[in-house]
Structures are given as structure tokens and as C-alpha cells.
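I have been asked to look over a protein record a colleague put together. The record follows directly below this note.
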Amino acid sequence: MKRALLPALLLAAAACQSPAAALPKLSYHGVQTDQPPPRPEFVLTDTSGQRYDFQKQTKGHPTYLYFGYTHCPDECPTAMSDVAAALRKASRANAQKAVVVFVTTDPKRDTPAVLRRWLNQFSTGIVGLLGTAAELATAQRASGVEVAQPGPVIPTVPGHPDQHFTEAGTAPHKHFGPLGYSVTHSAVIFAYDADDRLPVLYPGGVTVADIANDLPLLLDPARATS
């Protein structure tokens, strides 16, 4: 389900252009944040059953963080597809330094097996994280977003209970479980840089090229305009 409201911290995003310098400064293609917040601290469980300390295990790496669920009809598969495609466009050296983390907002249905199988459609390298409802709420609050809530019923295609109606531009994907429901969630890709701050985020409508073009700035934040 789409569009839980972003907090004021993330809505107040504007890029201030600085004068040209001897070393070229570049602007992010996503939405820049005012006073970039630090990389959040939370601990969940990955799809192999190991505890995953987000702050410690992604520290110093460009990191894409997304909160969603595997039965999402549009935003979640498109977000994961776009990030995976952006990293394929990047140089291998840069792509290998990046971490992609997907945190489920549907702990009742997203089992480790379901989450892993769904993520593998986009990339086997995406880290899938799960937890109790309380742990997931803590992770969302630490990241500055509203806690996901049950949403309205989402109709399935007549005669095909395993298929949603999808919006134009939705990435191709499959679901592995019962549909017909929704979960509201933040529907934005958070991009943390090598300095462990959140300088930019990607709401719906940002392109694969935008994400790919910003990766060098996440790796070298000093090159970004403020």
C-alpha cells in the first residue's frame, strides 16, 4: 500500500547550490535532506536467522534502506527492482561497496523463506530483515518514519488470486502467498552515505539513472553540494 506520510525531517528537503569550485561539486538527483540525520541504530534478524545490527554492519557503506512487504502491488517491487538495476549500471567496484536492506512491515506473512524468495527476483544480494512487531516498530521509528499499519483490501485479478492489479510502470514480479490485503508504509528509499548520514532519499518517480548517478556521491560525500 502506498504513501504513509514522511516526517517533517524528510519532507524539508531542499538542495542549496554552492558556487563552482576547483574540484567539481555535484548535486544529488534524489531529494536532499536538510541537516542529514545519522544512520539509524536497530537490530533485526536476516533471512538466514542471524541477528543483523543495521548500524554496525552497514557502517561506512553506501546503504539503501526500504521498509515494505512482499505482497505490495506496486511500490515495493519497483523500488527493489530500481535499486538492483541502478547497481548493475554502476561500476563493479562501486556496486560491491553498496548494501541494500529491505525490512518487512508484514511480520505475520513475510516468513524468512517468503522474503528471501521474493527478494531474489531482484537480487540475491539484498539483505532481507524480519522481526517481531515491536522490533520492526522500533526500527521504523529509529529511521524517522511512521510505523506501518494494516491498510484496505486490495482486489486481486478475477480468477487469479495470486495476482494484483498493478499501476503502469510497476516492475515485473511474482508474489508467494495470499493477497487481497495491504499494509501502509513509507514507500521511500533511504540512501545513507559513507559518512553514515542520510543526505538523499528516493520517493516514487525517481529513476534508475537518478539512483545510479548518485552512488559516487554516496561513496565520496565531500563531492556533493550542500
About this structure: The radius of gyration is 17 Å. Residues 39-220 form a domain with the Glutaredoxin fold (CATH 3.40.30.10). The longest strand covers residues 63-68. Helices lie at 8-11, 54-58, 75-89, 92-97, 112-119, 133-142, 208-219.
